[in-house]
């Protein structure tokens, strides 16, 4: 991992929230000895080359709003300006979890050979239905998410 000790950006002492976030992201993805490496670096989560520089990360993301943290949108395997946002806890919970397909809440059912859409609301899984395509299933998920959480809901499509 690249040593950042010589960088003079004024954010590392005392550590700003953005610097702590950036350094944590790098540890999870690049440091094989980090406790979360198995959930990030080991499974192929990468950092875009531009974000090897803290200054570029800060320029792209801006200041972290109070109560927010870094979120990879739609389970992207890359940390970059195009795939990340500052998100509150509710947004993060809705966009986290295992991804079996390309879309949130969409899984391929090997038994029926169809795409299945499910959503977790108030701690309970709700089956939305089975569909011929992953896109149909994702659109059905989006409709349920908006009904449950309104316009702040995580959606596969905008």
How do the strands line up in the largest sheet? 5-6-7
Please report the number of helical segments.
4
C-alpha end-to-end distance: 36 Å
- What percentage of residues falls in helices of 4 or more residues? 25-40%
**Assembly state of the chains shown:** single chain
Helix/strand/pairing category:
alpha+beta
Strand content: 15-25%
Mean pLDDT: 83
Q: Main β-sheet: number of strands, strand sense, barrel status?
A: 3 strands, antiparallel
| Rg value | 18 Å
Give the topology string: H per helix, E per strand.
HEHEEEHEEEH
Description:
This protein has 158 residues and is of the alpha+beta class. The protein folds into 2 domains: 17-95, no CATH class; 106-152. It contains 4 helices and 7 strands. The strands form 3 sheets. A 3-stranded antiparallel beta sheet has the order 5-6-7, with helices on one face. 20% of the residues are buried.
Quick recap:
With 158 residues, the chain is an alpha+beta fold. It has four helices and seven strands; from the N terminus they run αβαβββαβββα.
